[in-house]
Every structure is written in structure tokens, then in C-alpha cells.
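#struct-pred

JT: dropping the chains for the assembly here, can someone run the whole complex?
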Amino acid sequence: MTFSKRSLLPVVCLVLLSLLGCKKEAQDASAPSGKAQAKTTIGVTLLTVQHAFYQDLRTGLQEEADKHGYELLISTGEFDSTRQANQIDEFIVQRVSAIVVSPCDSRSVGASIVQANEAGIPVFTADIASTSKRGKVVSHIASDNRAGGRQAAELLAKALDGTGKVVILSHPEVASVTDRVEGFKERLKDHPGIEIVAELSTQGKRDKAVKVMEDLLQSHPDLTGVFGINDDSALGALAAIEAAGKLGKIKIVGYDATPEARAKIETGAIYGDVIQTPKLIGQLTINAIHGFLNNKPPPSVIPVAVGAYTKESD
Amino acid sequence: MTRKTDGTPVQPRLAAPNPYGTETSSFVTWAVRLRMPIVLALLVIVATILTDGVFARKENLVNVARQISFEALIAFGMTLIITTGGIDLSVGSLVAMTGVVAAIAMRGIGADSASLCILVGLLAGVVVGAGFGTASGTIITRFSLPPFIVTLGGMLIARGLGFIFCSGQPIYEGLPEQLTTLGSGFVLPGLLGKTLPVPVLVMLIGFAVFWLLLARSVFGRSVIAIGSNEEAARLSGIPVRRTKLMVYVLTGGLCGLVGVMHSAKLMAADPKIGEMWELNVIAAVVVGGTSLFGGRGTIPGTLVGALIIGVLNNSLNLLHVQHFWQKVVLGVVILLAALLDAGLSRLGKSR
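RK: done, full complex below.
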């Protein structure tokens, strides 16, 4: 920290200035927002930009930020929590007005959040929550995975006319997936004709899903339904079911509606998918920040609705 | 010549004449030699009882054979590598990458001429896989670098390239419908029914070729000699560099072949597949009795090792054992196999 003393002065000035700025903005909230907040910058660090889900989330962030005249500094951790911690450090040095993070590691991100808190910068988490006990997050904006699981149960119950034997292809290491599975089981209680005969892990991978499904077809020849917690699980199950010549006899419900899964839904090989709205997550994140900066504190959790994608739905 | 009946080559530590020469000790020698097949047989019996016979049904046995075929094929190549004292961590990533490359090639040819298309896909996968193995092998032999670190780098490079080649999105359009035979079809279905899956036939051919290669060829002798004592092998005129390079080329080629067959099975090339395969493959090789220190290895042993792990995975799924417990059980079995191997070979030695 050789430069700390010298850099402290401009930093303090910036803090004071930005505080003044905030106050001013808050005072004339009625004024056109574009001009008043032209200098508001938001630091964003995402889990990855390779995944289509995060590309859409990013678009949502950018569109909504443009609307309010916020400047976004977007970086990506690419599954590396150390890199992400460095990015948050840089945002703190740059004195951004708010930080949005999709943690690469739900626990270790706590240390970075504490630093941002100490610097007086509000932190928002999008899609993935911080599970650390340290640090304060203003608001967590994410898909309602439990509702997604309920949606999946509804889809499968409809496909099976309320009766049958189903399996869950799960990935119990991931918190959002456990929520999906819980929601699924919760809603299936309303359909007593449907029995869950097994729940096995595919680790969200297609090659593993094929093997697990092949084994399940052996132990349960009378299976009628599958819930895949993501599309790789659903598509892996489909490959095994197709090879066993049971296409159509076993209904599949997936999650995310990737282009490949949509193609299979069109042909009827997969019955339907729960669909998330990453773009909406991005928009609602910026909205929450906008509210916070204008003295309208957002709720600590903002659940984003999910939908269903079936052959009929388009 | 009892000890040659299972086809494994005579192992030096058992080759010494039995000083006792009694019935009991020859029985012990037998038990020591066949320890892993015995473990497999016990496992099969336990699995059959616990699953109320579901395990032993013909369809499930065919299923298990098909499930192990990909990793077993790669394990045959890995046996050669480990016998030279090396290791290859890039195999799983390479399967994913070659699968993507093959899919791109096939999409380029177009589905109109299906057989040409599949042939080009196979060629692309095998050539690119062998090429990647050539690169790893060359770096290892030219610069005398540890295979662990070279193939660790290769693992990351292959994984990254797989994603780059397909922009992170699985390729599923433009693949010929007939491709599915390669991954989930059966040999002579009219005559044999659903008895011999195509990947299992390919695995059996690979088994025969690599068994002959390791146990019956000059090349195989060189592989074992290098693993026992590289310096001695060099001094006795064995082409050490060329032999070591060759084992990585062969394994890379096998990865390419498996990459194409796996894409055929999924009817999609997914850059995310093959994770942790390197460890499954190494586990099969080591459970099969090949020494991680080199100099000792057999292809039939590797097949038994792959079967042990395959039977275990299958029966745990049939029994719906919870995911986290599956990991524990698999870990314990690998440890037990290693302990049994060490203990029994000491017993064999002491006699």
C-alpha cells in the first residue's frame, strides 16, 4: 500500500463529491434523470459471459442502464473467484456508485462485500446469492427457483394426465437446483397419482445424464416421466430414452429452454421446459439500484418470475 | 502353464519357481493372480442379490458393457502410457474437443451423403486426437518434461479449444441420421437382436489390438522395459523417445474415436462432456493392476478394472444410492482395490 496516503486525498474528495452528487440527485428526483446522473457508474462482475444466460442478463443490465443514463463497467470472473475479488477491488478504487456481482463462489465473495461495505458502496447480487455471513447485500435479484420447480411439476402433471411414475435428474451440489427440486416435490403433492420413484444426480452434465437414465430404465421399466433440472440433463435423458426405443412413452420436462431443447420441444421429443428470464433479471437489478440511489430502498430479495415453454406456447 | 490361461503375460515377480510346490501354495498363487477377476465376480454376485436380479438381466448386462465401452477404450491406451511410467490427464477434454471437431466436419460435408459424412467425421476425430497426442508426446520427449504437467496443460487447451470451436454452444444440427448407429446401434440386429452394441464391438476390437500390442509385440516389450528402467532401456538400444511418443499418439487417436462415437450417441457434440473421465480411466487402469510407477501393466487387467468400476456405478444407480454416498463408495472401493493389490502381491512375493 505504498500509494495509499497519496491516493487517499482524491479518494476522500471523490467520496464527498459523490455524496454531494447523490444528495443533489435525490433532491431533484423530478428532473430528467439522464442529465443529473450522467456520472453514475455501476461496477458489474458476472460469473461468465460464455453462457447464453449471462449474455441475456448482460443485455438486460445494459438496456436498463442506458434508460437511466448509468454507465456500466462490465467485467467477468469466468468461474475464478480470485479474479472476481480483484475486479471488485478495482471497482472500490474507482469509487463506483454500486456494485453488481454474480458470485463465482457464494461463500468467499463475503470478504469482497465487506470491503465494499466499508467503502460505503452498495452491493447487489444477481442470479447467484452470497451465502457468506459476512458483508451486507442490499438486494438479491434472481429467478425464483422454487417457483420454477413448481412450474416443472405442473408441466409434467399435465403431460401425464396426473398419473405415472417419475424420476428427478438432479444436481444436489448446487443450491439453486435444490430449490428447484424442492419446489417440484412440493407441487407434486397436489397430484397424488404421480409417484417419484428415484432422484439421482447427473451433475448437470449430459454424458452423466445418459448413463443415469440408462440405469433408471433398467430398474424402472414402467417409468413414464422425467424432470431434468437443466437442459443438459433433459437432453441426456432423451438420448437414453431414444436409444431404448421408448420415445413418447416417457415424458420429459427440462429447465432453461436452450435453443437445442426448444428444437426438441418442437418435434415433441421433450414435452416442455421451464424458462428463465435472464434479461428481466438484468433489468430488475438496475431498477433496484435506481431505487436505492433515489432513497427508495428495494426489498432484500427480488424473485423474478419464470415461465413455461411448450409446443403450444408459440 | 496355468498362469497363462487368462492371457496375461507372465509377471516377473511371480515367475520365480514356487519353493513349496504344494497344492495349497499353487492355490494361493492362483488367487493372487486372479485377485481382480475374483473381486469383480464377488461384486457381480452382491449386485445381483441386492437388486433382486435386476442387475443380472440380459438388457442390463448389455447396458453395463455399453456404458464402460468408451472409457475402457481410452483406458487401453492409458495402460500403455502408465506402463511407460507416464500419465495423460487430457483424455476427457480431448474426447469433448474431438467430438466437436468431428461434428463441424460432418456438418460441413452435409447429411446428403451419409456414409461419406460419417467417414470424414471419424477420420477428423481420430486424426485430430492423434495429432493432439503427438503434440503432448513430442513436448514430453523432446524437453524431458513430466507428463503430468504437460498433459495438465493439454487438458486445459483441449477443453478451451472445444468451447472456442463451437462458440460454447452444442452442435446438434446438420448431423446425418445414420450417425446414431455408431453410438447407440447394435451389430447385426436382425440376427443377434439387441446383444452386441456397436461401441462394445469397437471396444472388443480395441481390446484385442492393444492386448496383442502390449503382451505380444516388440513395441509392448519396449513399453514395459522403459517403465521398468528407462536408462537401461536406452542403453539396450530401445528407441525410448519414439516408443514414448507413440503411446500418447495412440491414446489421442482413441480419444478421437471415442469423441466421434460419443457425439453419435448424443446426436450432439457437447463441449462440456468428458469431465473427470481422466480420473475414471486412470482408476480403471490402476484397479486393473497396472503400476502407477510403470513397468507393469496388462490390458485384460484394465478391462477387469473398467468392469469393476462400471458394475459399481450401475448397481449404485439401480439401488438409487444417494449421489454423495456413491462418491464415498466408489472412493472406498478404489482404495480397497489398491490395498488388496499391494497386500496380495507382497504375499505372492514372499512365497
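JT: nice. The interface with chain A takes residues 51, 54, 57, 59-60, 63, 66-67, 163, 168-170, 172-173, 180, 184, 262, 265-268, 270, 272-275, 313-314, 317-318, 320, 323-324, 326 of chain B (CB under 8 Å). The radius of gyration of chain B is 21 Å.
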